[in-house]
Amino acid sequence: MQAEFWIAAFVIVAFVIQTITVGTVWMRLGRRAPKGGIAGRPPVSVLRPVRGIENHIEETLASTFTPAYPDYEILFCCADADDPIVPVVERLIAAHPQVDARLLIGDERPSGNPKLNNLVKGWYAAKYDWILMADSNVLLPPDYLDQLLGHWTPGTGLVSSPPAGIRPEGFWAALEAAFLNTYQDRMQLMSDSMGNGFAQGKMLFWRRDILEDAGGLVKLGQEMAEDVASTKAVRGRGLKVRLLTAPLPQPLGRRNWAEVWNRQVRWARVRRLGFLGLFMAEIASGGFFPMLGLALLGATGVLSWPMAALGALAWYGAEWLLARRASWPAGPADIAAWLLRDALIPALWVSAWAGSGFEWRGNKMTVAQIPGQDGKGRG
The pTM is what? Predict the structure, then answer.
């Protein structure tokens, strides 16, 4: 009976953690933005790196232009003048003549990170001391600048936001949303609610002097990903990363299996290299092992099969309620994607150990390219 005891203990602990994280994020999503942020609506420079035609790209880039904020500039950054995204950006700029918006083209390579290399020219061209770096595929709400400034409470060194996957087309896009929303976003929002926020490269809102004092934009290239480097830079100054109350949406469109799998392996490998201690626990996250535990308890007679089934229903029912609360995808295909996601989490964890590099948008990135990295998760 000793084995059954430890299995039952694990299942109980897993359900407690699931309940706490779902409940905390549920309450968080119902709150208003925190008070005590930056007042006065200072001017902001918005940097958006662009490359290639992505799903819903014109919609997401158009959302950068907001009539809700009085004084801001937009700097679209592109490495190649012949990139097919250039006419799209030029058309959007022409459609908003009242906004100070420019397209900057140039291919500087001060680091091994292609996105940071694309952003360097924008960072140096930015006129203002408040600087937002937002990925091209994030859909920005009209009040996004007010939201970011409102979250800049005392002790803040960076405001960020993970993406919430919306509008998936097809099952593989639903799987990507399953990884993003009720799994990764839930964990990140929970950590932030505990005062331990982690930066997300999708959305980095800086005050210029903080990043410059940490070594500047190029400093962020000294990790496998800019979000890991940003988190460490902010914490190194005794400040905190804050996340927006609710994640900003990313329209997913259509995905294929290879895209989703390779992206998740890449992110898992980045987490392993950046925060090894936290990554070690990831293999036990998700529902795979708790559901396996319920099945074993049912097979050994510790639980009746109806009780084990009820436990599984409670586990994924909580996830469904959270998705509904947040207006994230929660249909039958999405529930099936949650089940597959949880089955894949252990395989992803193992795959993250098989190498110390990855390919991102045609650029091969390895630990050997990153100063100070040894491939063992230490920076």
Answer: 0.91
